[in-house]
Fold these 4 entries.
Entry 1:
Amino acid sequence: MLKNRLVYSLFICLFSFAYSMAQGEKNVISLKNILAQISRQHDVKFSYIEDEIVIFSVAEPEKNWSLEQKIEYLKKETKLQFKLVAKKYYTIYNNQKLDKPLCGFLLDAETEKGIENAIIKIDQTTISVFTNQDGYFELPKVSSATIQVQHQSYQTFNINPADLYVANCPKFKLQSITQTLDEVVTQRYLATGISKKTDGTIEVKPKKFGILPGLIEPDVLQTMQQVPGIMSVDETISNINVRGGTHDQNLFLWNGIRMFQTGHFFGLISAFNPSLAQTISITKNGSSAFFGESVSSLVDISSRTNTVEATNSSFSTNLISAEFYTKLKVSEKANLTLSARRSLTDFFKSPTYRNYSNRIFQNTVITDLNTYEILDYQSEVDFYFYDITAQFQQKIGTKNELNIDVIAIENTLQFKQSSADLSRNSALEQENFGGTIRWKTQWNDKHYTEFKGYFSSYDLNSSFETLESNQVLAQKNQVFDTGFQVRNSNVISNKITLNTGYQFNEIGITNFDEINLPFFSRTITNVLLTHVGIAEGIFETENKKTFLKTGVRVNYFDKFNSFLLEPRVQFNQALTSALRLEILGEQKSQTLSQIIDLQQDFLGVEKRRWTLANNSTIPIQKSNQVSLGLSFKKNNWLLTLDNFYKKVTGITSSSQGFQNQFELEKTVGDYQVIGSEFLIQKSFNRFYTWLSYSYNDNQYDFDELLNTSFPNNYDITHAISWAGIYEWNKLKLALGAKWHTGRPITTPTSFIVTEANPNIVYNSPNNARLKDYFQVNFSASKDWKLKDKMVLQTAVSILNLLNTQNSLNRFYRVNTADNSVESIDTFSLEMTPNFNVRLNF
């Protein structure tokens, strides 16, 4: 008996399961059509409100069921009420109070904050709407079709229309898309808003930026100097040295535009508006195969966002400049962003400006007038700078996006010299203009294609009239860079992504020199076309323990009819839950470099001019670099250790800024660096601190100059940086110190005087060093909330808090007055305060 019951129960279960499967396989049709069928089959009538039933689609009930069975089935599937009001006459209604549109909220599953600019689309219709800044949406029409939710940063999500037909606007939580390159090794690296990725890049997000010693706002190029292995031997951001390289060996990109001018005030201030940047990626080694033209670091600045943001603006001013920024939401699918910054220096001479002027103009034509025979002179210096950007972002449909970006940067210096009966005017202008247009198509969640065209124009012009004669020297350095790139990305599986691309680039450089007495004029123009093929594969396990990215960049240089292969690799492996291993390697090249013909080029303020490789006297520079690193993170401790080897070939002596016996030599050589970088960081709730140490052994090899290696001009053997930062509510305090060994110099042994050619006899190159460098910096900031969307930010900084006098450079020259050798030092910035006020609204 028991056995029969078991068999019978099993049969019922199997029958129920089969019936359910059959029901699931049935096509669902609209409730309105089902009611029409029932009306015909059973000779009944149904009364209803169209909008209350149109959202429902269910499987057809069995034809052999009775009328009562069919009504019970529909009540169960739709939760609607069926009321018999007369014989064979039913009214259908919804029990819920629905005096509202079909609406809902989309929230981030982790933060539970509203998701702005998600696309809500009704299938099989052309109807689509966007969520607002709170994630709220309304549908203008009710339908039984599935409602699709799409957003670039979140997984695709479907909503059953019946789920919206409730008393309140329901909330739906979306899971963010985890992208390979977004995996973070550490969330806070040096400061809030700075993080380190598994591919070795350092990412800075200025809008989330905390504070760093000496900074009043997130200056891009000052911030990157806090990273171990990155520094400037002369305190300027126009001479940033990454692992012993020169500034021109770094690639600076702004929204895909190559920037040839990176500084204002001839190197003391970053040329990129700090109000604008969204994400800054800094790569010292192991850069993606999509980036070339640099044998040192990559600084990729993006001011674009994935979503169309709400309108917001800001205005700020400090003791050097004032800036304005606004992002306008011109439609539900478009943003227009404008920013502008201009110096106040031509009509407001603050103490900060005077200190900056003393630092940047020392030992140049502007200040070194005592070499002239005429002593009774006067001089006036007028200087200003500005930068302007404009960006347009347009979402087109659900899959396409258009971006148009332009940028303009300028420094202008007017220099007037006069005596009792003479007057001379000199000028220096430095400009960089650029633009890019990008079209991106997101075919689906796993595939996108991007087309980008760009141009960048750089002009450096100077005119110098000497006071003691009528001689006028005019100089120009012009660069025009243009090209386009195609990039395609496919997610092959949960672990593998394949990226491919093609890039075309044309670059032309013109150098011009002209003297009126005696007349001399020279114009040199060079052009180079480059074709590049790119392939890159990314492998990452689902548990994020293993990350591997390998790529290759194949360059073809049309002028030289030659190919150059550049492999890249980034590997990151979790050894334990707290310890990770990192291996990075790359081969890179660049055809552009900066050289110094004479130390007094461009009034001595901007000595470097861009030039193009000719594959003979100026070869293509090539670099090989490999690094091995470990990072440990546990209990708010962070320790990182990187050991690296780097060799760069094809450098010219003219690009290295020699001011000794090699100053006028023109030859080709290389340098190699072996180094280590160490960082220890600890967080204590509101307080965190770090200490970093860098070691470099950086040696030149110029066979035609010397048959042995000697120290690089940018060799800083030991460097230590410390900072302590306190954050409480909206108050932030930062104190930091920097110390490093002095840079190499070449001392004279004797002085030979002849009437025709007095000259200095030097010791072996870079035989001595300057005294050690030491500086203490301080910053403080406070935010004040004035209204719901209005915030006042105040910040103060003091550079060189102890007013330490540091010698940054020293060279020697002949003093013709007494036929002696004199030592000329360039000193660091004096103690310099600055103050910034920003209003966000």
Entry 2:
Amino acid sequence: MTVRSRRPAISALLASTLIASAGLASAPAYAQSSVAHPAQWPVAASPAAITDAKTEAFISQLMGRMSVEEKVGQTIQGDIASMTPADLEKYPLGSILAGGNSAPGGNDRAPPKAWTDLIDAYRKQSLAARPGHVPIPLLFGIDAVHGHNNIVGATIFPHNIGLGAMRDPALIGRIGQATAEEVAVVGGDWTFGPTVAVPRDDRWGRSYEGYAEDPEVVKSYSGPMTLGLQGALKPGQPLAAGHIAGSAKHFLADGGTEGGKDQGDARIPEAELVAIHAQGYPPSIDAGILTVMASFSSWNGQKITGDKSLLTDVLKGRMGFQGFVVSDWNAHGQLAGCTNTSCPQAMNAGLDMYMAPDSWKGLYDSTLAQVKAGEIPMARLDDAVRRILRVKVKAGLFERVAPTVQGRFDRLGAPEHRAIAREAVAKSLVLLKNDGVLPVKPGAKVLVAGAADDIGKASGGWTLTWQGTGNKNSDFPHGQSIWGGIEQAVKAAGGQAELAPDGKFATKPDVAIVVFGEDPYAEFQGDVTNLGYQLGDKADLALLKRLKAQGIPVVSVFLSGRPLWVNPEINASDAFVAAWLPGSEGGGVADVLVAGQDGKPKRDFQGKLGFSWPKRADQGPLNRGQPGYDPQFAYGYGLSYAKPGKVGVLPEVAGDVAAAGSVDRYFVDGRLPAPWRMDFVGAGSVKAIDAGAQENARQATWSGQGTLAIHGPAVDLSRQTTGDMAVMVRYRIDAAPTGPVTLGIGCADDASCAGTIDVTSAVKEAPLNAWQSVKIKLSCFQAAGAKMDHVTAPFVVGAGGPFSLSLTEVRLASNEGDAICPK
């Protein structure tokens, strides 16, 4: 049975489960304009050193020799996961990036030299001599979100939400410089930072990438971080060794979207856009930032990537920005009338470089045709190319003879970089409550429970992999877990420390330190509908209460990428510390929590909240100065040993919290999270079975042709598809199939939008009665015809004859080099 012949059966099943409200909503009417008025915006100016006479003369001479094909190539950036150095022989692209899940050979744990060798291969090919070719070095971009987080052994700094709590611009500059050096070590020229977003709704999954909800912190940090990454620009000279080009992002209002939705719409007046979301850009531009990244998001219905009034009139005009503007990951394809492979509107609006990770080839061809047809004016192309070449000159790419930093792999996780990170961890901690239990006294017997020995969890998203999942302590060979730091400090003070993740102990301790919080996530996967922490399964709260019931003072160290409603957990703790996502230097936590032999810790608490802490789980936007502002802990709050405070019993009413629907977990622990259901249609049935726990699995048995499906209301998985995510299935073959077997993703309202893959061979080759896991890329289903922006059945298995299959887990997962397309 062919794939095509399976689609009607799947569509018939899905049609029976169509939910009336699944139709697409009509476009909203906007009361606010999406056209900016430059006179209302702050004035800034790139330093004169970026456009010095020597640089501009060199660029003019170079452009005079370039063909239109070469000029167009400069405006397009591809990703290493979708091309090879050999592609540059035909397609003279101006830039290459390694996205969040891209790595040499698809190996997220590739050694530093593999990175250097790959970057050098691209660089060599871009400069190879060919008839009629003007050799221009490419710009290699890497997302160093909190340190060079792509490399095993690099220093992982706290995420920005923690750094904002420090209120220390000088330290931010030192972090930028250390990050730049570790990127330069493997050959990178450019990082996509600083992030100067001002998150206004903590339900946004990227809140931890922002320094604070108030622009005062962002404004104070953007200049020092720019100078840390790039150093000061000097006329006629490239960046100093160990510095790289930066990119202020995401222009503009990515932190102001309605409902905190990633890539959403900021429905706000221009005055608010200026006063809140624009303030981080002038200091960065004045400091010499070489690039700016346009946001995925919209302003009053207009995608920023196509907003000429913002990109050209405001950014390049009023703010005097002389570098180049790059888009986000295929963001141009979201503009009205555009696709990932064709979007003249973006360049005409002021975009200079398209980030086209997997669409670069088609985009190059269409952009070239559009320039030749006059759809993109030659003057606009020349302006974009001049700006890109300007950055390449200042980044030193044309003078790259004998790099003094590249290849010095001993600088990855260098002791002085780790010391900076440790200092940042200590300064970022915010003490929410302390009933006299901190600091831990010298000579104490200390029980350390929870996730204290998990550096990956403490590091969060954008750590080795895009979503930050699947990391082990061995992936941080220079790092130290929170447990490691506490153990070391307690022993140095004459005490004893015991690690017990489950909180069980042989000898009653004097105090327990429990580390718990959010699991890693990155953009859009981290979007949530409310700010409640473990509203259903309060496993961490149960641990705290159990220890308290045994008469043990409890110190909670809370790991999170945003403030969350944890009033019950705070009430169950004698001390509560917001540790954010501290990264690889857990010793910084011990420096503040544990006293030395003299009874004093190395550091007092310094951190102050950069984000208001919620009083209820149903509080959405909660920002200083807003009407009805009613936080549990206000912006700027933070206790210390020098200035203690009393926190009484907090209310434990979560508020009006509707059950959150899951877009990424379909079947977990024997349950189907709302809004998903599982059905069998045709010859066969499905039942609950035990697989190590009571009824934690489902077994589907086919006696003839039939279909098993998990289905529900329509969800948009297009960004997950673009982000190279996969369907992860843990399964067991109980009886080999006697006919064809397909796996699919579908939708209810259109038979042509389902995508199915023939998995017969893979299923027949799988061992019987053995549990195993597989990840299948969402892009495989898209290539098979699935409409990923309107998925109502994220998991459909069809069989043409007798067959038996058991499942314990079906969910989306990050592709960490282990996802496949079945053949």
Entry 3:
Amino acid sequence: MNILPGNMRFGAGRPVKRLEDQRLLTGKGQFIDDRPEEGALWLHVLRSPHAHAKIVAIDTRAAAELPGVEAIYTGADLVRDDIGTIPTLAIFKRPDGSPMTVPPRRLLAHEVVRFAGEPVAAVVATSRVLAQNAAEAIAVDYEVLPSVVDPVEAVKPGAPVVWPEAPDNIVGAMSYGDAAKVEAAFASAAHTVSLDLVSQRLIPSAMEPRSTIAEIDKSGRLILHVQSQTPGSTRDLLAESILKRPKESVRVLVGDIGGGFGQKTSLYPEDGVVAYAATKLGKKIRWRGDRTDEFVGGTHGRDLTSTGEFALDAKGRVLAYRVRSIGGTGAYSSGAGNIIPLVLGPFVQTGVYDLPLVHFEVKSVMTNTAPVGAYRGAGRPEAVFIVERLMDAAARQIGMDPRAIRKVNYIKPAQLPYTNAAGQVYDSGAFAHMMQRASDLADWDGFNARKKAAKKKGLLYGRGLTSYIEWTGGRAHTEKVSLHATAEGRIILHSGTMAMGQGLQTTYTQMVSDTLGIPMDTIDVVQGDTDLATGFGSVGSRSLFVGGTAVAVSTNDMINKAREKASNVLETSVEDIEYRDGFLTVVGTDKRISLFEIAKKEDGARLSVDSEGEVDGPSWPNGTHICEVEIDPETGVSKVVRYTTVDDVGIAVNPMLVTGQVHGGVAQGIGQALYEGVSYNEEGQLLTASYQDYCVPRADDIPPIEVTLDDSAPCRTNPLGAKGCGESGAIGGPPCITNGVMDALSELGIKQLNTPLTPAKVWQAIRDARVGV
């Protein structure tokens, strides 16, 4: 971890309004579709209508004769040109100990398609419409094969096989803990609780669908305009794995991104095909996905089916915790597709509780569906969902207050730093304190009166509680930035992290302004250009606590370098130079020089530093969410009417931005709990391929969300004391809301329903309970 001067300021916790909003809200954003066409050719992707089939033949002759068509590419063309495949991390073992094996992810399918929506051919034409028309004229002869869409069904004997080298469809497996000791604890426990739980597959709903432009500049370099949270790795994958050329020959540029949520963390087949076409034709090529392209061809999230069990003593202390899970990866393994269920989930599966005796068994399983990748929280929401649903179920079975059972099991402050059952070290936290504070703010004691009032209106009323924890960092604990002071009086920051709605421009500007004493309107934050900065990027809520650490280091480095330069100009020792508010002064005199005057004397008329920030490990944001839910038993409609959170994100540089992040995460949590869910039919056709069939929450489905930030337990792994915050709401939200609905339904004897808790599902459960089904 970098050690920085104790008197440095890093934003001072001020709720500065977002600097980005002026241009974004006035139509001046720089999204890919805002770029002028300038004679660019358009690319359209033809997708497979089948979930699993052999490609017998592709006839492109009729399509090639249509007006405006410049080129048509198939998987065979790319194989002939030695175009590579999108790599995955083959770091796991299958249950028999053999290495994991997955089908190669090609830009265009070759010989076999493995999910409905997989790209099969690409047409380049002079307009988007002409390209689409030509694609529809391509004749593909398929031999349809059996398919499987449910991961649980996929591991059963005789299930259709997605990839012959994994005949049981299992990609990898991991086990944590001691099975024998857990079994013994269950055998002697006063209480056991078991739930079959599903974190259903979800489709990310970014405001801006994926889009790509590729062109060759005058020097012969490939320029790729793309939406990517990780510009550096996107460049490297495209250059080295796909096109097999030096990475220096590719420049990736990312402008504004209309939402990422983890879905835009890597290179997609469409991006690679656009780049390939640009290199083949030597022309600018562009592609813009529509919403159905996103639904059928983009990565999905979640898809974890689990059985979770507690063994408890008579006082509600958890003696042992057992989980068996199957995580769906889809037909291909995305970069994080196996890591999410096999590693990231188990990292936080014990939550904020002292549960050292565990046994977790997890398998990642292929199906003939779109690939599963990162989606806000990536594994942590699924894991926290299991432990928090079990906590409520156990409390109800034993007859305990849901707060009391959690208090019995919380990790105590004296146990910190605490190593959990998966070997992860929580550096800080005050979990019981968070729950008490949230209870007070949520008016816990007033719940019964509100429930009574709801009952008079014929409504069922329930309360949900969740104590969550989140692992942030992406296992990349360093980040590089460069900082420049120019002769024109501006400060320019180049960072490899990537803004996608978090407000990084604002936060970084605050930090630089407060430390250097420079007005915010003279500071420029530049991201998304691999020629200027490469880093790990923005995933896993790492931007501020790792990327922000690099910013803090760079301001300190800038001051130190400026002091050295000033000592030469002012003819005194460095120790006698004091920096304040853009000026370097000889202590005790009026002799001084400005930072920008020093820059004027430098080569290129700018004073520059290249800096690296390093943290000691991940951060562990956590908190308590409490909600209240009302249900109309005549319609099954559930509505969240109150929502209170107390969130520990360590030291918040900009509390207003953090609050906004929590709001957004909770909104997505409401979607997961009540509305959203992917549905494939038995033939592998996506039934929820548009917003006509895939339901997301609207504005009037979101209640007032009261967010309180608690900084009583600063992070100890970075000099800012900051913890990640971007995924917290999406982790705490789903179990909190689900617990609220189940609490309301419990008076009817309904013990378990799987999300999404749609009106039809809730209505049917109520009817069945009333007739004694």
Entry 4:
Amino acid sequence: MAIKKSELYSSLWESCNQLRSKGGMDASQYKDYVLTMLFVKYVSDKYANKTNSLIEIPQGATFEDLVTLKGKPDIGEQINKKILIPLFAANGLEGSMELVDFDDDDKLGSGNDKIELLSGLIAIFENPALNFKNNRAEDDDILGDAYEFLMRHFATESGKSKGQFYTPSEVSRIMAKIIDVHKADKPSFTVYDPTCGSGSLLLKVVDEAPKGLTIYGQEKDNATKGLAIMNMWLHGNPEANIQSKNTITSPQFKEQDKSLRRFDFVVANPPFSVKNWNSGISAMNDEYNRFRGYGIPPEKNGDYAFLLHIIASLKSTGKGAIILPHGVLFRGNAEAEIRKNIIERKYIKGIVGLPANLFYGTGIPACLIVIDKENTESRKGIFMIDASKGYIKDGNKNRLREQDIHKIVDVFNFQKETNKFARFVTFEEIEKNEYNLNIPRYIDTQETEDIQDLFAHLNGGIPNRDIAELQPFWEVYPNLQKALFKKYSDNYLQLTIDHSEIKETIFSHPEFKSYSELLEKTYDIWKNKIYASLTDIISETAPKKFINKLSESLLNDYKGKALVDNYTIYQHLLDYWNETMKDDVYMVVEDGWNAKVRRVIEKNAKGKEVDKGWTCDLIPKEFVINRYLTREQLAVQIKQAELELTQIEITEITEEYTADEGLLVDATNDSNKITKATATKLLKEIKKDPTEKETVVLLEKVLLLLEKETLLKKEIKVLEIKLDEQTLKKYYELTQADVKTLVVDDKWLTAIKARIQTEIDAISQRLTGRVKELAERYENTLDELNKSTQEQELKVAAHLQKMGLVWN
């Protein structure tokens, strides 16, 4: 039976992290061991015992051979000699995979510590759910998601300056989608990353190319370079050319005449503001002419060195994107001169300002600079986007949402000017700003200030200006404004109804109802359009393509609908996909439309396995109960409601008669509760005392209530056991059609509609809230407030006079 992918990844990370904590190794180092193990597992499953495969797996160097090394005293040495060295040598990678030493006592410990650590690491990857034999790498099934999950977590744990091996996938996807990679219709098109890290950015670019690309990358750190090579193999690109050394001082990709090789696409996320970037070269006499005609970047800041290297590495029709700190857009002196020279050549097609704290090596805000050497003669300016406000918090970092990614890509690719978000800036305007590209100079993202109107406070009325700011609502509800307001004076309106009637007036207005029905119809159109896709999931269904079809359809159906943001609607669907639906689809792909149940076995504090009942991952119990066993469920609910009322009555008596030496204070235990034992004991002591008749009556009542509570609990337990048995029986009776109805209609579509409805409801809440706020703000004039104050003062003075006090 398929395991939930989210559970698999979380379990994988948790196991790895627990093992790491035992050894005390830094996360940035430990990742190399974990990812090497993932690599060996994958290539063994995928290519072992196969002829003419992309990767050769030598006899004795498979994951199964690795498993036989568990517990052996020389396990580390054997992993190196029997597994890794033969595997890399067989594929021409001797000397290229200086990644990890599995016999390193300094990192892994020695003796039994090392044996336990490595044996435990191997055991983690023996999980039957980690089976790559039938893995669809092209749809990023188990492998791609598991790798991405581990990389993100290792980057998060690695701390400042050690997480730069990984570019957040959200940013990588944006870069890949805005440099026209989708137009590369032959695998001979080339892509290059001069600071490739683990290679994740390169792979995201390749994903966008319909026929693939020829991959080149250079990475200064040898261990990270090995990680990149493995990453290429893991994702079906073993022919990728990944080199080491410093790109600025020793670029590895050159033509026969020693000039820099040029590529169709170049992407990079270089380390920010590198000091001494020119150590080892004479920038003035750079043999590759990267700085000629532009200028020399300052010695203490190498940002422009990487940008100029990219420009020099692009073909005359080449396109690229680089992540750099915001400072490159406005810093002065030598960098200002370089910036001016690049702008005058019209190489910069666009700039995207990103939120702060996205990247793992730094918290400072960054930007994407998009370079396009093609069509420079006709280019009239630079398209700028300020995307700094679109993100969510994710732990101690910020993260772009799917809606942010899609919006940035759409707006950039269609060059769509958007208020407070994006605009096309002419070179003439940039020149007037002395070639300063700081985005706030060109895009004002400040929210409109909510100004208090002094005249309205003094004389009453609501300013027309404030009502006019609600114009998007009045365009949809043109007559609603008249139903709410009338003219008060020049430039001021007055609410025509009481504050308490605002919500009802808006909700009951025909135009409001009509537009709500239109949005309801929009959802129904989308649902009917994609319903067959939901019910037709089969083993060949590619989950990524599946959700892309659903989400793009939803985005387009809500496009242009007033008052709602179609990107936000789109995000609701993708949030549900990531939280629930993705796991469900993978289960259906692997197991079919079957509601498989399983026992829930947990270990107690003593390590003993305890049966906690049963569950079904695809269809939780409540869906079967709600559809087939409502009468039985109602019987439980009636008894639970009766129990709740009984417990409330017990609580009320306890609170009333145990406080301040109350009648039942002696019937409480140390927790100040009345129990059957304490009540019985006190009753026995005072029953024959004629002065305690009232207490006796109360105690007898409490005992009856406690007895009723116990009886109800027993009855509920019996009913719950019976309902659970009936529910389990029903699961075995479900047909494939029943399962589809429960999953598609009751679970998926109900949840998606509810999420979208929250967005629709927010429309009325925004309008209602703002109208009420304005009405309350200007409800009382200054004269009315003064009069009210005087009246209150007279009342206070009268009370004081009655008390014999005179207030002067």
